[in-house]
Amino acid sequence: MKKNDIYTTITENEYLDIGNHLHKDHHQLILMLKGTLHVTVAEKQYFLPERFIGLIPANQIHNLESRNEMVQLFLIYFPSSIPLNQFLVLSSNDFIYENLIFISQNTNHLTKKINPELYNFSYAFLKMIKTMDNLQAFPLKGIIKTSNKRLQNVLHYIDENYSEQISLEQVATAYGFSVRNLTRLFKNEMMTFNYYLNYVRIIRAIEMFTDHKENIEKVGYTVGYNTLSNFSRTFKRFTGQSPKSFIKNNKTTLPQQ
Which end of the chain has fewer beta carbons closer than 10 Å to its terminal beta carbon, N or C? Predict the structure, then answer.
């Protein structure tokens, strides 16, 4: 890709899994049209749900993974001359959608020489997105990808058994920790055992909602909550919305190119 040009595309995949890679001269904008995405960048794992935008800086190693049945992404690669120093997750709105539609429907390759007016508009719009006051970061923050091998085993166990009624004491015993030592390991990663367990459960619930499994009570039980009220309360604490509101607000998608 020519480093001063702008490129757009819509891609659709089943269970997307793209390993470590980077874009040398271009930032990458990802708008989630369908499904959800796990993004690992700068040794931290982030979660990108439908209707949210991820902005990945140029020359930053990252990988992309989705556990949804189908994932559809709107991608823009834009020049690194636009300041972007860190990965961002931002909400979207109708104004964003309409402008991205406008950009993508004209051409998937913008050059200043051939399309000066559209190029200048697109460049200014992309420069503006991360500074828009009405865009909010997704409340469910990223998780540091730990380098501690023993804690990695614990996190993997939680990832595989989140739907069970597992406890700190049970996991500590199973992996040869005292409760105090395992608590300290989690604290070193700026989180707690319960935070990570609920983080995994809520992400999985969002993935299920995105696959149109919208029976809220059933999803809550499936991911490990004994009561609907407990699930709803935890879901709102992590996402800022009730499960019902989240489902309602995540319906709109861009049309196909």
Answer: C
List, for residues 161-171, the tens digit of each pLDDT value: 999 999 999 99
Residue with tokens 């708008």: 31
Burial label for 193, CB within 10 Å (0-12, 13-18, 19+), is buried
For residues 48 and 124, membership in a common domain is answered with yes
Does 139 map to a domain? Answer: no
CB burial class (10 A; 0-12, 13-18, 19+) of residue 72?
buried
∠ CA 105-109-111, rounded to 5° = 120
Domain that holds residue 238: 147-249
User: Which residues, other chains included, contact 87 with Cβ-Cβ below 8 Å and sequence gap of 6+?
Assistant: 39, 41, 42, 44, 46, 54, 55, 56, 57, 60, 62
Separation CA 91–CA 32 (nearest Å): 10
For the chain, the residue count is 257
- Name the burial class of residue 94, with classes exposed (0-12), middle (13-18) and buried (19+) by CB atoms within 10 angstroms of its CB: exposed
